[in-house]
Design a protein that fits this description.
It contains 25 helices and 18 strands. A hairpin with a 3-residue loop joins strand 5 and strand 6 (338-344). The longest helix has 33 residues, at 370-402.
Length: 673
């Protein structure tokens, strides 16, 4: 639940697979700030582990929150006496308990109504690609791996959204790629329509720039926190909805048409706010100045009744200057002392007898006079009534708009989706992306694919594109050899990112692409350890590998980088060899990109059907190595590790020693006496 927008989603899983791992992956995908868990579960699961894996605050609440009676009472209090069937909860007992506990907790902690929560959205976990924490981190989908910045991530490249809610929706889509090829193609078709109509796309983006955060505005209205400026922002946003609807209808696309049907023009809300709220309302709603003239006859009469008194006070300063001859006399007002006449101490001798001293300040005195006090009473009493009446009118108007919360939320959801599709279209046009073919095959074919992020951070034209072909028969295991820094990891990551982009409905950086839908993407990249829990780098590597092997299915895509490097050569080589055989046997061939420095593994191309050797092309001239970053068939003949050490600035004497030892090892000479 997001109480700022009123979104409430629920899912339930009781069988199949590893329930704990499925739960953790779902929580990672949601990226929640706070997770509620019942006390019984805390006795079963490791609280610190869940908090560590999900980066969320874990809050244990009493089991009493999860009683059926408590849950149903909370649900009825929130949604009215509608049936569980209407809410989509009939027969979903665990969902009922979870929602009931959540609503009870929110009511207790927020100390306000939750009118912005108008519906319950049920979804199945399998409807989206499940991305675990390691994959989200390694592919740098929403932030970079090392410095946790948005710049340098996939989100940074693709986020050209114009609205706050579109930005949130894009982040959600990147964490939740689709698994259904029909849904994916609906998005791709919509993006294609926008790409083919650049003028309409530009008009749409110009209109979207004027749309405020509908979702958050709806939440503020429902919770009673919206002020006059919020309502004015809502009105101004509504004013651009007809333009957006006209643009969408002109595009004539299936998905866009369905979005258009859910976008309400909200004419009634627009007129209500236009008639009631002034063009420049104050931040506060209890001090007047918020309701337009002509909206309330009673309010207008009150304001008219003090018109003469205010005019008299406004003219008093000039009249008193002329009458007393005090040129520096000033009439002022503050909330503590009311209206006053201020005279500097150098002019006190000219003070009229009818002035009554009210306050002494440094260098000046403040006075009142009977007539001023009388007018002050008239004005302040009337203004108190005016402010109270304006507040009542405003809160009544806000309550009337509450009736449209559901419609506003539905509209904002469609606007957010349309904004993301426009962002995809703009990126596709600017960056040369193409529409991929997405189907239910197990073929993954990418021609001249590019890494979407790295090509934006390298000099124009320097990024080297590469091809990828995988299937579940003859090319399921791509064993990639070659030196460090040559581009193996980039190649593997770009393949995974192209798949992910396509399954979110985005065009991809390639000349052409066919994507057989992947249900999951797994990655095991880089070295890391968890010293706080006593886990070595190699242990973490093996734990992640075990998780992948246990959960990977026929439709999965696996990225494995340097498996077995954290232990002795023979141990590591054996594990890497056995991993390839496990993932590429006759019964199950899982599409896998396997980068390694174990050149011994290249013999498997001739032994295991489905294994294909690839390597990174290197040019060697006069002893200098040039990495061409081109992936070609075949295996590398060496790793060029000493050359990489040279590039890193390792001392020359050490490099020469290493070259000698490398020669001894290759020729079989004993180097240890």
């Amino acid at each position: 639940c997001d109480i700022s927008t009123g979104e409430l989603y629920i899912t339930e899983k009781t069988t199949g697979g590893n329930l704990y791992e499925d739960l953790i992956n779902e929580l990672v995908k949601i990226n929640a700030s706070e997770i509620l868990i019942n006390q019984d579960s805390l006795e079963i699961y490791d609280e610190q582990e869940i908090a560590l894996l999900t980066d969320s605050f874990l809050h244990g609440i009493p089991n009493s929150y999860y009683s059926k009676t408590t849950a149903e009472t909370a649900i009825k209090a929130q949604f009215g006496n509608i049936s569980l069937t209407t809410l989509g909860l009939d027969g979903r007992d665990f969902c009922v308990l979870a929602i009931g506990a959540l609503l009870s907790y929110l009511l207790e902690t927020q100390k306000q109504n939750l009118k912005q929560i108008t519906q319950c959205n049920f979804y199945e976990i399998g409807n989206h690609m499940s991305l675990d924490k390691a994959t989200i981190r390694n592919l740098e989908i929403t932030e970079t791996l090392y410095d946790k910045q948005i710049k340098g991530s996939l989100l940074w490249v693709l986020d050209k959204t114009s609205t706050a809610m579109g930005g949130r929706k894009l982040k959600q889509w990147l964490r939740e790629p689709l698994n259904d090829s029909e849904e994916i193609n609906l998005r791709l078709d919509a993006v294609e329509k926008l790409v083919d109509n650049p003028l309409l796309l530009n008009e749409a983006r110009e209109s979207l720039k004027h749309i405020y955060d509908f979702e958050r505005l709806a939440g503020r209205i429902a919770s009673g926190n919206a002020n006059g400026r919020d309502l004015l922002s809502l009105r101004n946003s509504i004013g651009f909805l007809p333009d957006i609807k006209n643009i969408i209808s002109s595009l004539n696309d299936s998905l866009l048409n369905s979005l258009n049907d859910d976008i309400d023009s909200l004419d009634e809300v627009f007129e209500m706010i236009k008639k009631a709220i002034v063009e420049d309302p104050p931040y506060t709603i209890k001090e007047g100045g918020i309701i337009t003239e002509g909206y309330s006859e009673e309010l207008d009469q009150l304001k008219f009744s003090i018109k003469d008194a205010k005019a008299w006070i406004a003219e008093l300063e000039q009249k008193e200057k002329e009458r007393t001859g005090i040129t520096h006399l000033k009439v002022g007002y503050n909330k503590v002392f009311g209206y006053y006449i201020e005279i500097s101490k150098s002019n006190l001798e000219q003070t009229p007898d009818e002035y009554i001293r009210k306050q002494t300040l440094v260098g000046k005195e403040r006075f009142i006079m009977p007539k001023l006090k009388e007018m002050e009473g008239l004005v302040l009493n009337a203004e108190t009534k005016i402010n109270k009446l304006e507040y009542e009118i405003f809160t009544k108007l806000r309550s009337e708009i509450e009736n449209y919360i559901n419609v506003i939320q539905k509209t904002s959801k469609s606007i957010a989706i349309f904004d993301v599709l426009c962002s995809y279209a703009l990126c596709s046009m600017r960056l040369g992306y193409i529409k991929p073919v997405v189907d239910d095959s197990l073929i993954l074919e990418i021609n001249n694919g590019r890494h979407p992020v790295i090509e934006q951070t390298t000099e124009q034209g320097l990024f080297v594109s590469n091809n990828t072909y995988m299937d579940n028969r003859d090319s399921s295991m791509l064993v990639i050899t070659g030196p460090n820094m040559a581009g193996k990891s980039t190649y593997m990551r770009q393949t995974a990112l192209i798949v992910l982009m396509a399954q979110t409905g985005c065009f991809v950086p390639a000349d052409s692409a066919r994507i057989g839908v992947c249900d999951r993407i797994f990655t095991r990249i880089g070295a890391s350890d968890n010293l706080a829990r006593g886990q070595s780098t190699f242990y973490v590597e093996m734990s992640e590998l075990a998780y992948i092997l246990r959960n990977a299915k026929e439709r999965s895509l696996i990225i494995l980088d340097e498996i077995g490097r954290g232990t002795s050569t023979y141990d590591g080589l054996s594990i890497a060899w056995a991993t390839i055989e496990y993932l590429c046997n006759d019964k199950k061939k899982v599409r896998t990109l396997f980068a390694t420095h174990y050149h011994e593994l290249t013999v498997l191309e001739d032994q295991i059907k489905g294994t294909v050797n690839l390597n990174v092309e290197v040019s060697e001239e006069n002893g200098n190595i040039i990495f061409l970053h081109k992936i070609i068939p075949g295996s590398a003949n060496q790793s060029y590790g000493v050359h990489v050490a040279k590039l890193a600035g390792v001392p020359k004497v050490l490099l020469e020693n290493a070259e000698n030892k490398l020669f001894d090892l290759k020729t079989g000479t004993r180097i240890i006496q």
